[in-house]
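> tool_call: predict_assembly(chains=two)
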Amino acid sequence: MTNHDIVVVGGGPAGMAAAVAAYDAGCTDVVILEREPSIGGILMQCIHNGFGLHKLGQELTGPEYAAVYAKEVAKRGIKVYTETTVTKVTEEKEITAQNREGILKIKAKAVILAMGCRERSRGALNICGSRPAGVYSAGTAQKLVNCFGYQVGKKAVILGSGDIGLIMARRMSLEGAKVEAVCEVMPYSGGLTRNIVQCLEDFGIPLYLSTTVVRIHGEKRLEGVTIAQVDEKRQPVEGTQRYIPCDTLLLSVGLIPENELTRLAGIPIDPITNGAIVDENCQTAVPGIFACGNVLQVHDLVDYVSEEAERAGRAAACLTTDTQSIALETKAGYGVRYVIPQVIRSREAGAELFLRVTAPFGKVRFVVTDGEKVLHTAKRLKAAPGEMEKLTLKPEMLKAATGPITVSLEVMA
Amino acid sequence: MKFDVVIVGAGVTGAMLARNLSRYQLSVCLLEKENDVAMGASKANSGIVHGGYDPEPGTMKALLNTRGVALLYRAAEELNVPCIRNGSMVCAFSQAEEAHLEALLRRGAENNISGLSILSGDEARKIEPHLSGEVTKVLHVPNAGIISPYELTIAAVGNAMDNGVSLCRNFAVSAIAKTEEGFVVTAESGETVTGSYLVNCAGGNADKIAALAGDGFFTLIPRAGEYMLLDKAEGYKAKHTLFQCPSEKGKGILVSPTVHGNLLIGPTAIPVETENSRDTTPEGLAEVVELSLRTVPSVDTRQVITSFTGVRASEKSGDFILQESKTVPGLIHAAAIDSPGLTCCVAIAECLTALLAQAGLSLQEKESWDGTREDICAFREMKDSEKDAYIKENPAYGKIVCRCETVSEGEILRAIHQNPGARDIDGVKRRTRSGMGRCQGGFCGPYIMQLLSRELGIPMEQVTKSGEGSQMLIGELN
């Protein structure tokens, strides 16, 4: 058993930013455990641009954005274990990991969980039909194309208009494949507006809303899919079935935070976000264990991942967070799917609230209330489930608050 | 190539026969039309060791089930195949069904099954807390169990190969000729194999093989069974294998834990056109959900990680066909091996061996025969200190490739190289569980393709999901 002050599980954008922030806050004994051969995480396969506009003031590709942080990690001499997989984290902050050298046991003062998320699979969707080759989750196809240098198919249908699906529609088109359609089961797209314009409209790829894939055909390699329109209950509408021949089906149907280690450590999980329940410093219900990035909540922009992780890193370094202090609970009200943090421990520092809306809205006003009392309002010209919202509560707003702090949405004329 | 015995079909029946014959001084060849073994009903079934109360007394099924349970448990231990004696329950929801339990209990006694008892619903819920409150009585079958059917088949073929049996894959039989040399079996590729004796273990295609051999006296009726496999998070919802009584709504929808800790629900029983009708359907899966919730109402079917269909090879008589051909001497049939075929597989192998001896095959035991096989996945059962020592000797075991099921590169390399080596992604999956977890291969898939490419010496574009025609990639980027 070796000792370290802070162990960061995962060297993606969240892990790197957390480690750097912790170091800069005065904790120099930080290590990162990364399962892949290099740090950078999923950014390494995101070779398109659009990263960093908010946080770094420049438009970078995924690997470029990762390199900015990897350089900061290296500059500080933060120890990185690559090809090292964490298999267990305990409440006592003992970490078990393994790599080609053997089993590592580390006792930490603080642990930052930054394992990211995974894609929902075909099995989880329970699409009927056969089980041929050629059905990929969009991220898997992205890895094969961008990191391994192979083309996965010639004629594709994409199910789900999440950002990875949209990006892959463009990527497949650029590599000479014909993307026949993007189908989205909801009546609106879950992706960023800029991606719908740049990845579909610019390439003439049709987006079918309220439409899903109901059957997969082909014994060995995919031969086609049957798509159908769905009603309000997302059930296929009889008579709308249509067969599309294709050799590839990409699934971009949602991301799930990878919280297996979190659950093993006995940390309570929020059933809506599928991430840990945290306070404003990203600290979980187990003191000294933090969670940040996509393992906490699925973000739309990596810039926000970095910011969230920095908060976790600083707090882990200070370990000043008094988990016993009085907590204000937060709640999602009308039109709001979830609010993170679920708990605010300190009234003095103020808090940043992150949330997503339940459906697309036009002009809206977010209202933050403490019981009957309105603490804060913020207007938006539009709000969509695909885009994360941030509301900043100043210390004076929280001064007399007793909780729960509820965020709801009012539709404006 | 000339062999003493040629076996057509590397499902669990052919595999167990090959293993049993490998005890003797014989040359044996196992033919398989797919790129791997256990590709038919042996990979897609309930994985149940049946207690033996169900078959009609006096049938082959009853006889072999009674004898087969203990034989199967022993074989599973020798072959290091995951197998748990978890017991089963048949649930009654009404007085009429309670009467059915009594009938099963009597039938069990006739079949010489011991340990059966009828418990009240409350007694059953004490040991099976998630069982529906609507269950009034259960038949408790302590000797029943669960086993991984494809791992059993793979291990039996591997053990047979370790003891000298040849395996020919991608050998789709297109013609069988009886000559002075014996049975000349020709594949679609033109390849031939000759055997003095021919055993038809061709599962869903056994009727076609019988016809090719000039003895097509039976017709199989394929019946599909759809299943849903749920996440390990749901695994605790059933300790026993929970059956329902047959009813007009269907029969045999079960809720069962698997040896790997998942929850399995299914199967339906729907007549289909061919043995290859392995699609899942909205109606079938809806039935699986509806009926399994009747047994265990708290099952969260949204936790599904995959669904699949197996096709049973049934025959109108309802019993196994295990006999030497009446018209073609030296041809032995093992056909219509539907449930409880898996439970009976070792007993069936014994029976087939006896039929071969009756037909004139001389059985001289080898001086030494090793019926054991090491577990590919023994590593993951080790303690941390043992793992550490093992990794220092074998660094590949330190590198985790499949994160959901914690499968190391070492285990994957072993799956590719240990008899019968995996040749495709699904083959690696069945041997190691890589890609069988929550992400269904999303993360590990590309790395497993790389390992297969490197170890088999084939380009990435030739790596398949499950044999020729199921290539994963279409080529390098321009």
